[in-house]
């Protein structure tokens, strides 16, 4: 921390010496430090009362989520620390009511149907307990369930439709002991045997235990518990019918470890009668992955399959294909009435393919998407109406995504985001008039849209793009808006960066975008060092503590995009990142001799590949990124086959198995080209990293040592994926101290980091 303090002191001296109005403004503020980064508050909306007036929320900081025991990853019994202030906020007045005097670990919030009582789970020791908050009495109390079983750490929590109790999930007797034993045997041995004759890889079998639970109903106020199954099950997408007579769900049975994610798990839809205890299978078990969505009444579900949308009610014998071509009609787009096996007569390569989006509030129609836009599909008539045309091929149109309905189903609320500038917000699309009404649209960054059941209130988060989010509420027409929180007023006294959207062409002439963050001491006409943080695509801004730390060190921060092509992703970073930096050098902003680059995880991998292809950077840092994609395939045992999937058809984009295209794996393994690395490289890792074990980065350290290149390996014994920033508070400070010192040292002294340039640039072009 001493080095960072001296660096910031020198920056502050510089502010005073320049003497401009802007500089004097900065001189009156304090530098943004790693201590500040730990204290930035974030709010998470947990539940909205039916009328939209009362908001259950948790307010937390990065500091509240430190001290995770990363070595316990994979242990089904471990619950990582995640503390927060628990609040109820009145949307009419903005009044905040804390439910506890201190920060607590809570989850799974739900308001009762009448909006009077908030149910949630509260961690006490190593077990969750049910708590109820009575809003009128302003009282929180623990509910002692009449059962010896504990509440599952991943339990859902949902009120009964009539408010008579809640639905949750319990752990079976002896679950914790058996699960902990399975974890310890696989971790400590003394002898560990894995056999291909077993259906699961050993860590899959242990992890699957965490998905098991015993769904149960808790009656209130009696606290009586009614278990819905005789034993443990794994279910998702639970829905209660509005008459309270049925609980329906997606049942998931893992049968074997899968390398493709297209097999090894069976999915079925079932409905349990709470009247007589009978179970009915609505959709037979099959290996095809199934994602379902229930209507508001809990009486029917919808899903997409092979390019069509299906719906099935609790009374239907089979699912109805809503979008498959009717054989008798012979024209694309007409709705068929067949079952899920009736795919119609159209050629699969030319027919329109649909995906389910959401139910209309009345449950009588669904919204589906295709390459042409959004379609309203009526369940009774089978008509398919292209409600909003958004051709996928037109990349210039703003992005619009449905996020909610008006209660009458006439207005579809959609997020709005331009593709070439920061213009974002919410629009209302009238399905009768086919007219779009702008509700809110500006340069701000919006998210977390929630709509009250009555339709009177819309809840959302907003940032100006540079400050952290705060919570807002608006009427459905946005005629009135209210800011509900002011989470970080102290940041007004800190020197913060400002962001800018940068458009540039990569080496192939493709238009890309990046986000540029200005040094807090920026003066037009001067060139500054730049540090690029790389990953994949970047477009939106938003508060970023990493960029603020770089900006306070006197650097530009830059998050450039890269176009990554399957089979040849390694070329994308060279073509995109360097082109983005070139565009800034041409504007007179950047000192071309003082360039740094780093990334975390996939970005660390990208960084290591990039410096095998160019010597332009004065320094580079690989944070928790692999260097050997071949050894990495089996290098992360706790996530089993994920790395195979990532390479073959996921993020790594190799697009083939190691044995089908070995040359592509060799080309994307940085360690094999270590002799081409002349850039000083720092490697940062965590002992408890379940994703990219430090053994992978160690290969690069040993290689560069052997090649007599400049390399430093920093390994945090208490950290996980993300190195020091995922560890404790002390390691977080150390992590950033080393990063800033690494760049500062290789950019020469910070006193010389700013150079005069004859070309004037206002930095806003």
Main sheet, how many strands, which sense, barrel? 9 strands, mixed
Number of domains: 4
The tally of strands reads: 43
CATH architecture of the largest domain: 3-Layer(aba) Sandwich
Strand content: 25-35%
Using the alpha-carbon principal axes, give the shape.
globular
Percent of residues in helical segments? 10-25%
What is the CATH topology descriptor of the largest domain?
Rossmann fold
How far from one another are the termini?
A: 36 Å
Identify low-pLDDT runs.
1-26, 326-346, 749-765
Q: What gyration radius follows from the Cα positions, in whole Å?
A: 28 Å
Can you identify the CATH superfamily of the largest domain? Alpha/Beta hydrolase fold, catalytic domain
Give me the oligomer status: single chain
Q: Return the average pLDDT rounded to an integer.
A: 91
Structural class, from secondary structure content?
A: alpha+beta
From the structure above, extract its key features.
765 residues; Methylamine Dehydrogenase, Chain H; disordered N terminus; 43 strands; Rossmann fold; Neuraminidase; alpha+beta
Architecture overview:
The protein contains twelve helices and 43 strands. The protein is α+β, with helices and mostly antiparallel strands and 765 residues long. The strands form ten sheets. Strands 35, 36, 37, 38, 39, 40, 41, 42 and 43 form a nine-stranded mixed sheet that branches.
């Amino acid at each position: 921390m001493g080095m960072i303090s001296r660096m910031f002191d020198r920056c502050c001296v510089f502010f005073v010496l320049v003497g401009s109005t802007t500089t004097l403004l900065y001189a009156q503020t304090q530098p943004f430090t790693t201590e500040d980064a730990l204290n930035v508050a974030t709010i998470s909306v947990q539940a909205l009362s039916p009328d939209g007036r009362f908001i259950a929320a948790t307010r937390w900081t990065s500091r509240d989520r430190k001290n995770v025991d990363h070595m316990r990853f994979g242990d089904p019994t471990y619950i990582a620390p995640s503390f927060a202030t628990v609040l109820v906020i009145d949307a009419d007045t903005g009044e905040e009511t804390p439910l506890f005097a201190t920060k607590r670990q809570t989850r799974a919030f739900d308001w009762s149907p009448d909006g009077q009582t908030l149910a949630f789970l509260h961690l006490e020791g190593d077990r969750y307990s049910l708590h109820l908050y009575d809003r009128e009495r302003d009282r929180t109390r623990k509910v002692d369930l009449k059962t010896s079983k504990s509440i599952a750490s991943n339990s859902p929590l949902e009120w009964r439709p009539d408010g008579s109790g809640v639905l949750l999930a319990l752990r079976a007797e002896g679950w914790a002991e058996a699960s902990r034993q399975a974890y310890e045997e696989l971790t400590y041995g003394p002898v560990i045997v894995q056999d291909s004759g077993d259906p699961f890889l050993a860590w899959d079998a242990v992890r699957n235990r965490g998905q098991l639970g015993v769904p149960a109903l808790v009656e209130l106020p009696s606290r009586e518990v009614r278990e819905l199954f005789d034993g443990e099950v794994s279910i998702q997408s639970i829905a209660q019918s509005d008459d309270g007579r049925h609980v329906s769900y997606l049942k998931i049975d893992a049968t074997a470890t899968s390398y493709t994610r297209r097999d090894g798990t069976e999915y079925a839809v079932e409905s349990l009668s709470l009247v007589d205890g009978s179970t009915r299978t609505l959709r037979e078990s099959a290996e095809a992955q199934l994602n379902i969505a229930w209507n508001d009444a809990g009486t029917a579900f919808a899903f997409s399959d092979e390019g069509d949308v299906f719906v099935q009610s609790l009374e239907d014998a089979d699912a109805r294909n809503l979008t498959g071509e009717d054989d008798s009609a012979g024209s694309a787009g007409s709705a068929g009435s067949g079952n899920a096996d009736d795919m119609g007569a159209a050629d699969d390569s030319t027919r329109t393919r649909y995906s389910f989006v959401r139910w209309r509030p009345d449950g009588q129609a669904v919204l589906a998407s295709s390459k042409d836009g959004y379609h309203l599909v009526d369940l009774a008539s089978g008509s398919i109406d292209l409600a909003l045309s958004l051709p996928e091929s037109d990349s210039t149109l703003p992005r619009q995504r449905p996020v909610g309905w008006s209660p009458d189903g006439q207005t579809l609320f959609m997020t709005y985001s331009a593709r070439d500038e920061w213009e974002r917000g919410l629009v209302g699309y009238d399905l009768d008039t086919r007219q779009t009404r702008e509700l809110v649209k500006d340069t701000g960054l919006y998210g977390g849209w929630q709509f009250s059941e009555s339709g009177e209130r819309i809840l959302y988060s907003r940032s100006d793009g540079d400050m952290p989010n705060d919570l807002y509420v608006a009427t459905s027409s946005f005629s009135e808006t209210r800011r509900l929180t002011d989470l970080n007023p102290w940041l007004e006294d800190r020197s913060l960066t400002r962001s800018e959207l940068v458009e540039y062409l990569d080496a192939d002439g493709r238009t890309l975008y990046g986000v540029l963050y200005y040094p807090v001491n920026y003066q037009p006409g001067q060139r500054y060092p730049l540090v690029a943080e790389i990953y994949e695509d970047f477009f939106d801004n938003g508060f970023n503590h990493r960029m603020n730390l770089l900006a306070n060190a006197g650097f530009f921060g830059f998050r450039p995009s890269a176009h990554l092509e399957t089979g040849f992703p390694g070329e994308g970073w060279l073509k995109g990142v360097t082109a983005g930096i070139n565009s800034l050098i041409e504007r007179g902003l950047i000192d071309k001799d003082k360039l740094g680059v780093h990334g975390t995880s996939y970005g660390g991998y990208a960084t290591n590949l990039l410096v095998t292809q160019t010597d332009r950077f004065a320094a580079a840092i690989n944070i928790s990124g692999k260097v050997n994609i071949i050894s990495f395939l089996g290098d992360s045992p706790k996530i089993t086959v994920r790395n195979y999937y990532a390479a073959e058809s996921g993020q790594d984009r190799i697009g083939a198995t190691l044995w089908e295209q070995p040359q592509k794996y060799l080309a994307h393994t940085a360690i094999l080209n270590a002799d081409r690395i002349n850039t000083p490289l720092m490697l940062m890792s965590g002992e408890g990293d379940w994703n990219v074990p430090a053994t992978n980065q160690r290969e690069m350290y040993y290689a560069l040592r052997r090649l007599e290149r400049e390399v430093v390996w920093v390994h945090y014994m208490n950290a996980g994926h993300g190195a020091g920033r995922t560890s404790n508070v002390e390691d977080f400070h150390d992590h950033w101290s080393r990063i800033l010192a690494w760049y500062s040292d290789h950019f020469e002294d910070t006193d010389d980091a700013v150079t005069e340039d004859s070309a004037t640039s206002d930095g806003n072009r």
